[in-house]
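Note to self: keep these together.
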Amino acid sequence: MNDWPRQLSDFDRLPGVIKADYSDFVVEEIPLYPADGAGTHTYFLVEKAGLSTMQAVHDLAKALNRRRHEIGFAGLKDARAITRQWMSIEHVPPETIQRLSIPRLRILAVTRHHNKLRLGHLRANAFVIKVRQTRPERLEDLRAALAELERRGVPNYFGTQRFGYRGDTWRVGRSILHGLTDEAVDLLLGRPETEDRHDIRRARQLYDQGQYAAAARLWPRLFHSERRMLKVLERTAGNRRKALAAIDRSTLNFYISAYQSHLFNQVVSSRLPSGLGRLYDGDLAWVHASGAVFRVTAASVEQPRADAFEISPTGPLLGYRMSTPTETAGELEQRALGEEQPPAGAFHRSGLRVKGGRRPLRFPVSQAAVALGADHAGPYLEMRFVLPRGCYATALLRELFRIDAADKGSESEDAEVPPDE
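Structure:
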């Protein structure tokens, strides 16, 4: 993500460190709708400290003796942060939820509703972020730059956490969609890099040497897919096709999603020089108030709405049901994607059914503010803002700061948790 161009390319960014402590990065979901207080589903507001959403779901399911898929949630949240989000489960009394005692997790509120909470049932996220080791004397410069982002919007890049700690999950997705099975398995299990911690790096080396059983023993227990694949390779004398088939569908979809995200970022980058709010004939425009998408037949007619940030052009999340732009906008998108587009029928391969869709090239920032602060750890700049669901705070922060995360692996949600028993 650091290589993608910025909206504020002329702004001299400040240095900064985020996530020096969990409390330096606070996220709270703004629900799509309020719970109505009645129904068979118990809704509960969870505060997590240093837990990914999926690890919290695993811990809750274990404490309630239920399966993970029975717990509903609206979005995935960073691990190295304090996050507050609503979850749901059916046919569990509210008092049972209130009595739960789980490390690094608190139940803040409990109510009822008539349906399960599902991914996307979320309006926005509110952030409070402390940036340390920065330059407080440039507070006014920062406020002016933040106001410019409110006016023009932020490039809607998918953040680095989408691509794993090695930054290559999109390459795995590309290999799967292009039918390059050997390459996909090699990326997942071999090709050691300096980013790999010692035991994983050694496991990858052993895979490259064909020592599958020894490699399986070295992978940490949380990496279930890798361990499962290696056991299949050992049992089948190195049959990579069968090894890839051992990965569950949700994990495969994660890799496909990473590839979609990479291609979307390419389109954002290509449109940024001419302005992410500029419309072209044939664009598919996003209505920010409703999330509806419509085709632009006359860009000059619709441009005032884009200038007012009512609508924005969109980029591709490739899939078999995705609409494509036409005319000038279509030509621009095809040029940005280049040779990366998967072959026909790829999104139905091996049981995958990836519908795809459109995503706005920019996102609005609201309720933005920045102030000076200090605590036991020293001075900081406190950033407050609200972003629409699915938008990354890191995309905004990189416009203003040369950010260094205290724990560079902390944002990744791609590590698996143990499967349901």
